[in-house]
Amino acid sequence: MLTQSPNRSVVGNKIPPIADLPPEQFFGLTGHAGLVATEFTYGKDEEIYGEDEPAEYVYQVIRGAVRTYKLLSDGRRQIGALHLPGDVFGLEAGVTHRLAAEAIIDTTVRLVKRRSLEQAAATHVQISHTLWTMTAGELRHAEEHMLLLGRKSAIERVANFLLEMDRRLAVAGMMALPMCRRDIGDYLGLTLETVSRALSQLNDEGVLGFSGARQIVLRNRQRLRNMDA
What we know:
The structure is a single chain. The protein is α+β, with helices and mostly antiparallel strands. Helix content is 35%, strand content 25%. The protein has 6 helices and 12 strands. β5 and β6 (77-83) form a beta hairpin. The protein is elongated, with a radius of gyration of 19 Å. 29% of the residues are buried.
């Protein structure tokens, strides 16, 4: 596990520590107060850290995608968040990780030691403000996700997901989803079959179209917004 030994080689692609990275590449923080970031690459479905493991690092997705999730006592999996390039994850209030994290596809992440980040935040206003902003953003996402799971129908959840991915992924009107339909279901609290039926219904109604297994073209965003209202 990475949290047990940050010096291990990950799928043969360890990149040595990099100091003074351009500000936009990691929180806008590296290069401040001696913070040093390191990059690791993980293969598809490889664990980055496990639930209840020590939260020794904070991470940022550089390439690929990451899911954070919890396994329930009956074996079901609930995905808490889907992290895409630029997203930060692993920032915990406690000393351990509440959720596990896995690479959805081949993924490169950049990480910095949590202790170094906390020490820097104590003396640098910019760092403290950035951490506060990220924490507030995670809280907002958790509140919105709770509302999604507790109050919306299956088709409304799928519409919400498509609009979210449209904002975060769409290029030239097309989304190339890194996650499979099972991931979507576990994120939305739906079965694989329900997700597939909802997508097929939206396709039949002309709201979206498919161009490849995971490529979706949204044809009627306003219809999706009305469903998600």
